[in-house]
Amino acid sequence: MSTVTNTDWHNRPAPESAQDWIARAADVAAVLATDAAARDRAGATPHAEVQLLKDSGLVTLLGPTEHGGAGQDWPTAYRVVREVAKADGSIGQLLGYHYLWNWAARLVGTREQWEHVEAEAARNRWFFGGAVNPRDKDVTVTEDGDDLVFTGRKTFSTGSKVSDVTVLEGVLEGTDDHVFAIVPSDSPGLTFHEDWDNIGQRLTESGGVTLDSVRTPWSSAAGYVDKVFQPRVYNTLNVPTIQLVFVNFYLGIAGGALETAAAYTREKSRSWLHGGHERAVDEPYVIDIYGDLTAKLWAVEALADTVAAEGQKLHDDPDAVTEQTRGDFEVRVAAVKARATDVALEISNRIFEVTGARSTATAEGLDRFWRNVRTHTLHDPVAYKRREVGRWVLEGELPEPTWYS
User: Regarding the domain with residue range 130-229, which homologous superfamily does it belong to in the CATH classification?
Assistant: First the structure.
């Protein structure tokens, strides 16, 4: 059972600036860090952790201020995800996915739809999950009068049992058209399975879900007007936006690994008996490795922040997004995704070189950082991200908008 509890958020000054919100995320991370290893081993449904995100105000970070949200931008959201992931990669992923699915109404929906969704989400502090894995046509959507009916199964449904609302995705029967809709997570016919049993990201509730005639009004079909989808280039920005979410919780996990390892080295590691040093922190190879890994992390963090700022310019003026600006942005995202993947894997692996044999004890939980990064970085092959960059450099070729690019 989780020991994540904190009841004094309402007695603290409300964050105002981006830096205030990043500091609030660091406070949340400090709470999560107290028993992160134990919670990872237990693998229990993170109800208390999500309540912590709600109580601290982080769930409404992107929400409109007039409805109780913080009115912050995506660069701030990415930094918040990074901070939370330093303590707990699973909760960082849940929060990042929540931000994307909350924003999906704006990406895909009509103005009337997204204004309604964002207002309700901010007022009610909804936590979003997503039964969206469009690689397979495994959910069929049929019409029944003024309703749509979703039937099928999704292999992954991140957030599932801890979400208030779930984004559904399926293919309209007889067409190739994908339909997105937001429904209450306790909707009749929506069954979440307890089959998420992977080596990492254990608390993300990413198991399968069955949709047995889940009904929702046609009016909730995102971006459809009179049953016809209204396409914009901005619709396709969902992929680079969530890929930057990935980047930032990878970097958060890597940063957490370094911080945790450094504390272990200072407090517990023993110097090598033949090295001539009394303290592990004076070992030249230990100093060198920490310096090397930190420099690599800082470099990728700087690139991630720069790319996030580039993306915000597109979010600021959705109707002005063109195939060229979208494609150029996706290439930049692909580049930082590739580097973040490599650096996070290297850091979470090499920390053991500077902590020593005793640090592999289960109680220390240092392995969770590598397990978390290794699990999620398999989401889509990083080689294809490098290919996007290479084709752009050599031929000026823009990535074709797909569910993964």
Answer: Butyryl-CoA Dehydrogenase, subunit A, domain 2 (2.40.110.10)
